[in-house]
Amino acid sequence: GEDVEQSLFLSVREGDSSVINCTYTDSSSTYLYWYKQEPGAGLQLLTYIFSNMDMKQDQRLTVLLNKKDKHLSLRIADTQTGDSAIYFCAESGHGGSQGNLIFGKGTKLSVKP
Amino acid sequence: GAVVSQHPSRVICKSGTSVKIECRSLDFQATTMFWYRQFPKQSLMLMATSNEGSKATYEQGVEKDKFLINHASLTLSTLTVTSAHPEDSSFYICSARGEKLFFGSGTQLSVL
Which residues on A lie below 8 Å from B105 (Cβ)? Predict the structure, then answer.
C-alpha cells in the first residue's frame, strides 16, 4: 500500500542548515507536500512540489525531489529556534486529490541555540 | 489568507458522552472538508471526507456510527464523537479545500 517514511528526530544548531528526508511509495503522486506543526497548533503548509519538478526554492526553504528514488527532502537554511516544530511529508496518493494525503509520521526538528 | 477555524481546541469529557467538534472555513467556501486523527508519535490518518449536502465518505476501519459527520453548509463541517471512550482520546484535525488545503488548529480530546 501507499506509505511515507521519514526519520523521527533531527537536532541542529542555530544557524546551521537542516535537511529533513522523506521517502514515499506511490509513483503516481501528483504533488508532494511539506507541512509544519508547532506545538498545540494545526498543520501549516510550508511548500509543495509538482511531481515533474526536481527542485523548488522558496526563501530559506529548498525542496529536492528524486522521482526515480521516490525521495523528497526539505532543506532549511540558517535554521532558527522558531523553526523548531514537527515537519510532515505528504504525498497526494491516487488521483492527486489534495484531501486524500498520505502523511509520514513527522520529523521533530529541535534547534539548539 | 484563507483561514480554517476549529473549535474547541481542547475538550475533556466523561466516558459515554458525546462531543461535537466544529470546522469552519472563514473566508472561502469549501464543498469538501476532511477529518484526520493523530495519535501521539503517529502520523495523521484521514478519517473521512465530508461533502457538502451529501453523506461523508469514511476510510476503512472508521466507524461511521461513532464518528458522525455533518456538512450542512459550504463553510461548516462538524464531527461528533458519540459515546466517547478513553481510546477515542486523540488529536483531531480538520482541513478544508480552497485554492489549497488549509488545516484547522486541531482539537485535543481527552475522554476520562
Answer: 40-42
